[in-house]
Amino acid sequence: MPMMNLQTLSLRALLFLGLWHSGRRSLASAPQLQDQPKRIAVVGAGIGGTAAAYFLRQEFGAGVKIDVFEPDTAGGRLATVKFGEHEYETGGSVIHPLNLHMKHFIEKLGIPQRKDVPTKMAIFDGKELVFEESDWFIINFLRILWRYGFNFLRMQMWVESILDKFMRIYQYQQYGYSFSSVERLLHAMGGDSFLTLMNQTLEETMRAKGFSQVFLNEIVVPITRVNYGQSVRINGFVGAVSLAGADSGLWAVDGGNKRVCTGLLYHSKSELISARVTSISIKDRPSKRGISTSFYEVNYVGESGSAHALYDIVVIATPLHQGTSDILFSGFSPPIPSHYPGRYHQTVSTLVHGLLNVSYLGTSEPASDFTVSDILTMESKGSIINSLSSLDPVHIPAAYKRPPTDQPKVWKVFSPQPLSQEQLQDMFLSYDLVSKTPWLAYPAYRPPQRKTPPFILHDRMYYLNAVEWAASAMEMSAISARNVALLAHHRWHQQVGKIDQEDLHTRLRGEL
Ligand SMILES: Cc1cc2nc3c(=O)[nH]c(=O)nc-3n(C[C@H](O)[C@H](O)[C@H](O)COP(=O)(O)OP(=O)(O)OC[C@H]3O[C@@H](n4cnc5c(N)ncnc54)[C@H](O)[C@@H]3O)c2cc1C
Ligand SMILES: *[C@@H]1O[C@H](CO)[C@@H](O)[C@H](O)[C@H]1NC(C)=O
Ligand SMILES: *[C@@H]1O[C@H](CO)[C@@H](O)[C@H](O)[C@H]1NC(C)=O
């Protein structure tokens, strides 16, 4: 083995060297203070709820019954539509190469990554394309250097440094540590600097670091617009997540990202109940020994009418906000609201099969020469779209080649409002298929964040989507799912030493 100082090897490198798979911590020494729970309810079968089912099974073992409630198809904001012969993603689409939970899931489930199709990006200012990526790396490099100096390189270094701290969460979770609030989770990863990021706008954060306004307007804004439909007034943490989403090596799941959700449901041996949860209340039942135990009564409505069931533990895996869910919590003190303050931002995802009007982008290039696949947009008066991308199917057939722009093909447009027929007719010379999905996509971020919703709603009831107020992404829901499963386990067994530990980063350094 070559000489190598382990301390200087980054955690990331170690995770790649396979530590990820070897480090299942031993549960054998855990004192069994109480019986295992018998029944657990998970509300929502998006990536958050299904990952929670997976991690809850891991924590509590084979004996517990896990029910997952979902009125629609499993996947939630991961969804596909069939368009002609192929299926396409309409919701969450790309995954970062360092999203280790998502990676772990597809490996565990034996689902391959989607085959890569090269992309080419351009930036549209509402009138014309102000930047167009070239096929030549050196040309891109020189253009960027010419226009933005070292802003670009410094941005990559800044995002990298945040990602390095972010990656600590995987080690903490590997060792079974959990956190009782979003703030504590963020603090464990990146200390006070992460809390500050959450409380400042991305613009304030980057301006304070010396990034130029031109760079923000022309590069950073287009990236936050395509990823979160919002400007650089989002918080600095989700801003950094968004910028990481412009890294290279992004991937997707072959056959559609939502396959992970159905796969996790199956793997976790939980039962999918096709019903909408309407209310949850607390019920006391006398137990055998005469002591009364409390249960959560989950009331739900499915195709065969309404019903209810009792659970020891409940995990809410849907946003509790206006328009996203409507669950009544009754009999709790302090009361639990159906909707927390703050709203979700609308992004309409429109798929169009048609012939693009390249003049709409202010270019005089003939369509046959136009090879850009992803058009990001700057903020401009009267701009109606956030992005426009040539879309490839969720499964890339052998010998697939993306059709050229002078042929009809599938485009995906993100916009804050539904596009009218006139607007579509302006953007496309002709089209024959259109599908519109209006998403309440992610929080409308307005830092400073007064108070993030809690992970712990009640004694044994947890709320996974609180994490979205730091940043909304598949991996964030997966991290939150594991955190909530660990939290539920440790609180059930009163293992307080595994909750909210300070200074884990220094303490675990020796463990590597
Ligand atoms: C257009 C768009 C693009 C995105 N792009 C990306 C991307 O490229 N990369 C990325 O990582 N993330 C992306 N995201 C974000 C990502 O999709 C979400 O963060 C993630 O999917 C959230 O998963 P979740 O399981 O926490 O919530 P959801 O997927 O919203 O799941 C909640 C589930 O709960 C169900 N539910 C609601 N109410 C009830 C009830 N009363 N009873 C029972 N069930 C209920 C819902 O039907 C839903 O299925 C994007 C999102 C959108 C909308
Ligand atoms: C194409 O876009 C240009 C610029 O927006 C517009 O003037 C023109 O009418 C469009 N063409 C068609 C056929 O809609
Ligand atoms: C963020 O700022 C608000 C208001 O300025 C404050 O109440 C809150 O404690 C801050 N949160 C963090 C995590 O620093």
UniProtKB/TrEMBL annotation:
Cofactor: FAD
GO molecular function, one term: prenylcysteine oxidase activity
Subcellular locations according to the entry: Lysosome
InterPro entries for this protein: FAD/NAD-bd_sf (IPR036188), Prenylcys_lyase (IPR010795), Prenylcysteine_Oxase1 (IPR017046)
Catalytic activity: an S-polyprenyl-L-cysteine + O2 + H2O = a polyprenal + L-cysteine + H2O2; S-(2E,6E)-farnesyl-L-cysteine + O2 + H2O = (2E,6E)-farnesal + L-cysteine + H2O2; [(2E,6E,10E)-geranylgeranyl]-L-cysteine + O2 + H2O = (2E,6E,10E)-geranylgeranial + L-cysteine + H2O2
The keyword DNA damage belongs to this UniProt entry's keyword annotation: no
E.C. numbers: 1.8.3.5
Record keywords, A-Z: FAD, Flavoprotein, Glycoprotein, Lysosome, Oxidoreductase, Signal
Enzymatic class: oxidoreductase
Domain Prenylcysteine lyase: 131-501
Lineage top rank: taxon: Eukaryota
GO biological process, one term: prenylated protein catabolic process
Primary location group: other
Family matches, as Gene3D superfamilies: FAD/NAD(P)-binding domain
N-terminal signal peptide: 1-25
GO CC terms: lysosome
Keyword Membrane: no
Function: Prenylcysteine oxidase that cleaves the thioether bond of prenyl-L-cysteines, such as farnesylcysteine and geranylgeranylcysteine. Only active against free prenylcysteines and not prenylcysteine residues within prenylated proteins or peptides. Involved in the final step in the degradation of prenylated proteins, by degrading prenylcysteines after the protein has been degraded.
Homology family: Belongs to the prenylcysteine oxidase family.
PANTHER family registered for this protein in UniProt: FARNESYLCYSTEINE LYASE, PRENYLCYSTEINE OXIDASE 1
Record's protein name: Prenylcysteine oxidase 1
